[in-house]
Amino acid sequence: MIENLxxxxxxxxxxxxxxxxxxxLLRKSLGVLQEDxxxxxxxxxxxxxxxxxxxIEKFLEEGKVLKENEDLKNQEIYTNLHRLLxxxxxxxxxxxxxxxxxxxxxxx
Length: 108
Prior knowledge:
- By secondary structure, this protein is mostly helical.
- The protein has one domain.
- Helix content is about 70%, strand content about 0%.
- The protein has helices at about 5-15, 25-35, 40-45, 50-60, 75-80, 80-105.
- Helix 1 (about 5-15) packs across helix 6 (about 80-105) and helix 2 runs antiparallel to helix 6.
């Protein structure tokens, strides 16, 4: 069980700014995630040809949200409602914190 989910989101949101400082891309990604869901978000990021999806998967694995070597296309995530909602929530928070770090001029 994850003890401090918000801290993990903040920590990895800040680390995400090391991968990209493109606030517009992060906002669009967040919009896709919120409006269309996790799988659409994954497809969108793959289409954008960036490292954000891989970085998010790495952060989710380090934070114990994803299992080792599991990716966001893993069918188990989508067949387990609790995991799906938790994963989506963590990514949303991570993106929001990354956007605020960029707005505050704290991107790396």
